[in-house]
Amino acid sequence: MKNIFRVVSFLEGISYLLLMSLGLYYKYALNDPSYVKMFGMPHGVLFMLYIILAIMLKKEMNWNVKDLGIILLCSILPFGTFYMDYKYLKK
């Protein structure tokens, strides 16, 4: 389960960066919202999987409420999922 969460968190982080960089560049600089739509749906699915898997792993990884809050907060910060992987899952 931990390895699945690591993969999902990595993919969620990549999809978030693509959405915030390429998606928003094409939308606002080139007036082409198709990239936001293209990156938005996979990011939304990965985001939901990230949240669900984090809650499911709470007991297995012995995270307290503060740790879970930080892990959930990392899902909305740029590069947050990579920090979370390094800090909480490399143990």
From TrEMBL:
<keyword id="KW-0812">Transmembrane</keyword>
<feature type="transmembrane region" description="Helical">
    <location>
        <begin position="68"/>
        <end position="86"/>
    </location>
</feature>
<keyword id="KW-1003">Cell membrane</keyword>
<dbReference type="GO" id="GO:0005886">
    <property type="term" value="C:plasma membrane"/>
</dbReference>
<feature type="domain" description="DUF3817">
    <location>
        <begin position="4"/>
        <end position="88"/>
    </location>
</feature>
<protein>
    <recommendedName>
        <fullName>DUF3817 domain-containing protein</fullName>
    </recommendedName>
</protein>
<keyword id="KW-0472">Membrane</keyword>
<feature type="transmembrane region" description="Helical">
    <location>
        <begin position="7"/>
        <end position="26"/>
    </location>
</feature>
<dbReference type="Pfam" id="PF12823">
    <property type="entry name" value="DUF3817"/>
</dbReference>
<feature type="transmembrane region" description="Helical">
    <location>
        <begin position="38"/>
        <end position="56"/>
    </location>
</feature>
<dbReference type="InterPro" id="IPR023845">
    <property type="entry name" value="DUF3817_TM"/>
</dbReference>
<keyword id="KW-1133">Transmembrane helix</keyword>
